[in-house]
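For reproducibility, we list the full input for the zinc ion complex.
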Amino acid sequence: MEQSGEFLTTDLGSNMLTIFLIFIAHWYLSLFVQTFFLHRYASHQMFTTSKFMEKVFFVVTLLAQGSSFLRPSAYALMHRDHHKFSDTEKDPHSPVAFKNIFSFMWKTANEYRYFTDLALERKDDKSLPRWTAFENIADTYPCRIAFIVLYILIYVKFAPSYWYFALIPVHILMGPVHGFIVNWFGHKHGYRNFDKLHDKSKNTLFIDFLMLGELYQNNHHRFPTKNNFAYKWYEIDFGYWIVKFFSKLGIITLIK
Ligand SMILES: [Zn+2]
Ligand SMILES: [Zn+2]
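The corresponding predicted structure, in tokenized form, follows.
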């Protein structure tokens, strides 16, 4: 059956838009759980929440990060060491010693496994959020593979051409991709408000529209427990806006 050219063009346009929206939604949802739940809550304990809401955020973290789900407890231990040993040999994810991104990401992946074991050993550490029964399903290969299959099916359904399949690896590795951008650029490229810090942290963007405030690494390393990562009048920490919004709704209680 012959279809009109106009129909095909409209269809192609709407599918391109669908893929674009899916990509943006996944990018920011995954980023939200990383900055809000894994970083500000699990690692730095900047706010508290009820046990029920903590479980809700566990579920949202799995839905958002999918195949690249990270255990909050392992992330927290790894990240606390990043602050303690920033840009030294003991820093679990400093880009300073690496020449290329692959060796950097490979090392971080191995570090994550190490910190997962450590978090499991420290059963009584109350500073680490955990939901063992849930994580023992989320942090497994079958669960990760199920999400990968879902991403592929979404692209088979909506991608206007096979070229778009090149984006699938980004969906699969969304968590590590964000971790890479923050830790690589945030400790290599940008400006410093606080020059006397001994690490190499930088503020990468004047207005961090890309990473919800995570690219103000220099400000954050200077004030690691401060909820607002912005410091100068022209800097905007959108992640902090979300935190404030959730606090207004009564979902969380700010403590720092
Ligand atoms: Zn850092
Ligand atoms: Zn931090």
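Confidence is low (pLDDT under 50) at residues 1-5. The first helix runs from residue 5 to 43. Both points were considered when choosing residues for closer inspection.
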